[in-house]
Amino acid sequence: MSGFGKGCHLHLIDGSAFIFRAYHALPPLTRKSDGLPVGAVSGFVNMLQRYVEGNTGPDAATHVAVIFDHSGASFRNAIYDQYKAHRPPAPEDLKPQFPLTREATRAFNIACHEIEGYEADDIIATLSCRAREAGGRVTIVSSDKDLMQLVGDGVEMLDPMKNKRIDREGVEEKFGVGPERVVDVQALAGDSVDNVPGAPGIGIKTAALLINEYGDLETLLDRAEEIKQPKRRQTLIEFREQIEISKKLVQLDCEMELDFTIEELEIRDPEPEKLLGFLAEMEFRTITKRIADKLGVDAPTVADVIPDGPDAAPADAPETLPFNPDDYECVSDVESLKGWIAQAYERGYVAFDTETTSLNEMQAELVGVSLCIEAGKACYVPIGHRASATDDLFGGNARAEGQLDLNEALGLLKPMLEDESILKIGQNMKYDSKVLSRYGIMLGPIDDTMLMSYALFAGIHNHGMDTLAERYLDHTPIPIKSLLGSGKSMITFDRVPVADAVKYAAEDADITLRLWERFKPQLHQQKVTTVYETLERPLVPVLERMEMRGVKVDRDTLSRMSNAFAQKMAQLEDEIQKAAGRDFNVGSPKQLGEVLFDDLSLPGGKKGKNGAYSTGADILEDLATEHELPRLVLDWRQLSKLKSTYTDALQNHIDPETGRVHTSYMQTGANTGRLSSTDPNLQNIPVRSEEGRRIREAFVAEPGNVIVSLDYSQIELRILAHVAGIDTLKQAFRDGQDIHALTASEMFDVPLEEMTSDIRRQAKAINFGVIYGISGFGLARNLRIPRAEAQGFIDRYFERFPGIRAYMDETVKFAKDNGYVQTLFGRKIHTPEINAKGPTAGFAKRAAINAPIQGTAADIIRRAMVRMEDAIKGLPVKMLLQVHDELIFEVEEGAEDKLIEKARAAMEGAADPAVKLDVKLSVDAGVGSNWAQAH
DNA sequence: CTAATCACG
DNA sequence: GACGTACGTGATTAGC
């Protein structure tokens, strides 16, 4: 059957209502294997199943869809900003369940739709009107009274709870007027739940009375003077505008533009494998069994879908389809592009990739995009290729033939790329998203295979496309070098011949889609869905905005410093040459070693396999007592570092367009969950030395703004106190004590009031050492004390805090047993070398001890960042930078106190409600016109 | 392209 | 008993 018309019956299910009802009706169930909250999903599935079972007889549907509210504001908020303003935000344990309910709907093979800027009710209204015009019947499965305005002429409602059909009479019973006047009554009566104001003092009863008397709302308002009751008359006149706004709020939009047709909603039988696979993954044993019985197949057990290790093949491993670059299509006309976009709509998802002229997203120009619908079925859309490999005198800079116009292609792609119901799948989507945003396209929603790999395999391998393709698809992608070359003669992608670009670019999208198919089910199987959904995916847009904002860096300040450093260095170089007795390159460790140990024969030997002398800072520091030269070299090196890495290099990173420095955060750079920062690295701007710290003076606020820095105080030690359960430490943090002094006092039996800075310094080193997986050797070197003495400190520390040793032993044992360790939020860090022999074992052990602590801290600040934009909404603030335990903001002068209050609350409460810490988190704040002052 | 060095949390 | 050791990053430079 195709088409929709007479004899057809469309059922529209209010999905969001289902979710909330399920959530509130059921206890907070969690998935047994990983604690993912699934209560609402389970209730939702039950309701869907009951619906499907009941869908027989004369009222059975021929077409069906589940409609969801889209997250975020609707067009009604533009009309009235207080609309639904009193609604509390969705509970934390419900949020991760929203996407799962969409998945559940698809698992039932039922269409599901939502559209940004609209509420489910509007979509339902539009569909109802269209179905009615086509001569079909409609049943709206919902008990929401707002939908009653749609009833009549073949449209009915079905209250799923009471299993009661509501027709025209039902509506009159409820509102006292017919469906066509329901909005008028609602406009007058208002709605406290949705915060629709209405007319004060008028309820449904009075409203219906008035409407029935005057016919409709407009007439009533026009003739309000005639109303006999003085109070009512005055209210209607006084609140006329508010009533009219209310009507706009309750009036559903019947003429929305939809990105799908009614025909597409035709009912389909569930595919048992898909449905049961989903249910088993959710670990709904009873429902799985019941539905399997109904479908007449064997129920898969949880074990079927959850294999043992990350490398175990998924139960439904896609057959390996070979990669054939000749199958990829080059899209060069509008019809063809429309065809691919239509296919994306049909699927609900599409793998997507962009090709550009630069790795710098702030400057990259779009050259083409590729799409992949299913494994092996991909295309490339060239839009910015040039005619020749070089810019010659014969028009080589001209556009290549056979390409769509950039604006035309983007115009066609934009609605799909921004459509909330179409999932865009990519590898490192932050890059593509940033590039597209400069073309006015706000990409979303997205899935990212790189982030999935990170959630699944951190510690096992890196997460680049080449690694993933080779490891999971047994395929080596076309190297980009083969197209662009390397070194000096490297070309940009716009100069790659289109035919070559098609093979390369479409393959990337193809690989991405295949990786996604493989990784998506594994997230559940490996119990990292929550990590991916709460710590990875939502961070992408946050980082994207921080990167695009950049931070203002004052070139003159840096330039002046560079000059000063250069002068001082030249001076030092002279002194160094004099002290050495000959000319040599101070920057060469090799030459320096020869001068120190051969020419001057200072003590200190060769090291390493290459036979070179070691001339690290610690060695020079020791040598400084013997000779003046090492000290001079140390000073020179400090200046050299500051100049080359900071005052010089940073200037080159100032974007000519924005005058700001735009770093790039890598979400998958550090195994522990930390971010890393590149191009430039803004997470290692000097602070420890006085000279270095002055570089931060160049990081400034715009005129009328200030820089605010908020940093977690001792977050890793607090986490250690929590995970190891050390009461003394917990108490000390509760009392706001100096934690290093307390450690010193405990260890060396020195009362706090007699504490010396030296004893405290040693204790501080021990505290840090503990976090790093302390060893006698390491502590000895750090404190420059004999190894035996350092070992004595450590022994004493463990004696005093036995819980810490127990925690360390348990962590190492867990790693040995499982091959990974975990943060408090469920992030897994794999430790493949933990069972190695030899020195490697020591490394792996210490890394395993450190990872849960460092990783939990990283998770906490990630949570804070994800929530931050909401927490500081309405304030004239920009979040600019993250430095592991610190967030940097630029804020309009005067708003800094409010910002500190809001941001601090978000940071200190970032672990809630997922994890209840025994130790409270504490955040220090600083304000200034530059970063040096704010820190 | 790698090792050494040093900047940060 | 000896291994040789603090945890996690990125940028720059020298020198093959």
UniProtKB/TrEMBL annotation:
Residue ranges annotated for the 3'-5' exonuclease domain, each copy included = 328-524
5'-3' exonuclease domain mapped to chain residues? 5-268
Highest taxon, organism lineage: Bacteria
Which residue spans adopt a coiled-coil conformation according to this UniProt entry?
A: 555-582
A GO molecular function held by the record: DNA-directed DNA polymerase activity
Q: Which reaction does it catalyse?
A: DNA(n) + a 2'-deoxyribonucleoside 5'-triphosphate = DNA(n+1) + diphosphate
**DNA repair in keyword set:** yes
Listed PANTHER family: DNA POLYMERASE I (PTHR10133), DNA POLYMERASE NU (PTHR10133:SF27)
Q: Name the chain's protein.
A: DNA polymerase I
Which lineage ranks, top first, belong to the organism behind this chain? Bacteria, Pseudomonadati, Pseudomonadota, Alphaproteobacteria, Rhodobacterales
